[in-house]
Amino acid sequence: MASTHILSAYDEELQYLTRRISEMGGLAEQMCTDAVRALVNSDSALAQKVIADDVGLDQSEREIQEKAIITIARRQPVAADLREIVGSLRIAADLERVGDLGKNTAKRVIAVQGGVPRKLARGLEHLSDLALVQLKEVLDVYVSRSVEKAEAIRLRDEEIDAMYTSLFRELLTYMMEDPRNITTCTHLLFCAKNIERIGDHATNIAETIYYMTTGAQPEGERPKDDTSNTLGAANS
Amino acid sequence: MASTHILSAYDEELQYLTRRISEMGGLAEQMCTDAVRALVNSDSALAQKVIADDVGLDQSEREIQEKAIITIARRQPVAADLREIVGSLRIAADLERVGDLGKNTAKRVIAVQGGVPRKLARGLEHLSDLALVQLKEVLDVYVSRSVEKAEAIRLRDEEIDAMYTSLFRELLTYMMEDPRNITTCTHLLFCAKNIERIGDHATNIAETIYYMTTGAQPEGERPKDDTSNTLGAANS
After folding, report:
1. Does residue A106 lie in a domain region?
2. Which long-range contacts (CB under 8 A, 24 or more apart) does A208-212 make?
3. What is the pLDDT of residues A95-137, one digit of tens each?
4. Neighboring chain B residues of A104 at a CB cutoff of 8 Å
5. Which of A28, A114, A139, B81 has its CB surrounded by the most CB atoms within 10 Å?
6. What is the nearest CA distance from A155 to chain B, expressed in angstroms?
7. CATH assignment at residue B152
């Protein structure tokens, strides 16, 4: 009886971590959706909400970390159980960073009050849709623990990177066409970079789920198609 | 005797973490110094070295994380000892991020092969000097555990933020003066942002050291003077 009781309390601790991480994921996703909506609609009130939400997300990460550490010290888990807890720590850290990226995007809303040109807004929304689908799907995989789906998500990050590189070029073109676009487009460049990095964090989470489930790191080089870092000064 | 032996092995585990973190700090600092040098001197070979160094830094973070988790499970530490290990995990994560920022700066060297205008190079070097002094000093405080110095470093981040905001404005001015500067200056904006964020990570580390030493979070709002997020489109 005693042993059953201990196991069940332990299961509850693991379930607590899983539930809190899913909650964090939902909040991080909502913050990023709201941030892009605030940006394209010049909605300062919504931007302020995103900035306020980030306090709760940071707090959640800290609580998950504390709970995970207490569980490790109390239960001395090994193998799959230990990977489960270490994985929780890593995923919570990635989600906290996703929230920071949403917050940074929201903070720039006030700087682009002149409004975002329609074509650029569509580009940002499209990039954001791609990144948030990745995030949403990886959070589903966190529940289902499908190794195949984790692999598939990891390989799809290059689509986001290619879209980001294309948007980067477009923003440069706008700036070159009219210097009055420079300040706004500079902030939009940072916003685009923020969104692209949400995709990177979704990929990190996919790799962590792979590790939690199999005990191994995924094989093969991580695809990397963001070539904007090396876009030269000519013709771009 | 047995108890002394156990205590001593435990001390060795803590010392191992301290030593590995100091090593990570040294490497992260060197990577960032090299990245800025590579940028202002258009030195692709040095940039490649920084990119290669990042693999080792990532590996170190993973090893520190594994060792920390094993130590928590084996020793079930409480109070100051537990904070020591949790702090190590947090600092290693911050240093890994600092390395990523150095790597991202290095990757942009190839895009600004046209060279960095002298005045902007001086601005970037100055910003980098400020951020790297913060990083170096916080790594010294990690050894000395001086709460007063940790507090002082935390309060000094606003100097870096103010310098970053000034450089941000200067880069926008260059772009407006001549559209041919736009691509290079865009990459330099991202580099400046990378360097400014090194200062943020030094501040995080200072806060972690404060927590490790006192068990409390530092009091008072963290100073924040990076106003570039909200620089409006007019006159900047």
Report:
1. yes
2. A208/A87, A208/A90, A208/A91, A208/A94, A209/A87, A209/A91, A209/A138, A209/A141, A209/A142, A209/A145, A209/A147, A209/A150, A210/A147, A210/A150, A210/A151, A210/A154, A211/A83, A211/A87, A212/A80, A212/A83, A212/A84, A212/A86, A212/A87, A212/A145
3. 999 999 999 999 999 888 778 999 999 999 999 999 999 999 9
4. 229
5. A28
6. 20
7. 1.20.58.220
